[in-house]
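Exercise 3.2. Students should predict the tertiary structure of the chain below and write it as structure tokens, then compare their answer with the key that follows.

Predict this chain's 3D structure.
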Amino acid sequence: MHIGLFGGTFNPIHNGHLKAVEEVQKGFSLDESYLIPSALPPHKEQKDLADAKNRMEMIRLAVASCPALMKSVTVSDVELKRSGPSYTIDTVCHFKSILPKDSRLYLILGLDAFLEIDTWKSYMDLFMLTSFIVIPRPGTGSSDRSIILKSIENYLKKSISHGYNYSFSQSCYIHSDKQPVFFFDVSPINISSTKIRKLINQGMSIKSLVPEKVEEFIKTKGLYL
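Answer key:
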């Protein structure tokens, strides 16, 4: 089985997240993907961070509103059940322990997050346990592909291992004893959670940026005001 793990604060989840998951699932023929909201993200400020249970519910509502994802995406509360900071290494080890032994994990994360992965707990262990699918930051397009690939290559060689090299036949960076790193160019959608929070705080509409049910939930709970 090929399994995608897509973590983050999802503060709030938006249509860009959903589109990225859908395209990655198709592009890598993933059997299932898990959306994993973090309870206490160690690299994010807690300011403006909605309660974890509310973020979890918004993800559930978002997935339920997207027929293309309903059958193949699971919302996981594994990080909400753990105490303390939400470390990715703990989450990856959890899924390694519960999934069939022949499962292949893909950690899906944005370029910005990937380029600071050397600040994460036990980050070298991650490169032994899971493949990576790096997606571009919101608003960037395919014209940036060569620049992004170069930045990934420079980072891998400088901060992870000089043994990483790009394989044109496999379309990824490969290593003799570490997991591969893919770059996947999802459709550019200029949406960010930060932008959504600012619009809400300014009393402006977020229609078309998040699923309708998520918008209703945010209004009902009075989030991000």
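Discussion points: The first helix runs from residue 15 to 28. The domain at 2-221 is CATH 3.40.50.620 (Rossmann fold).
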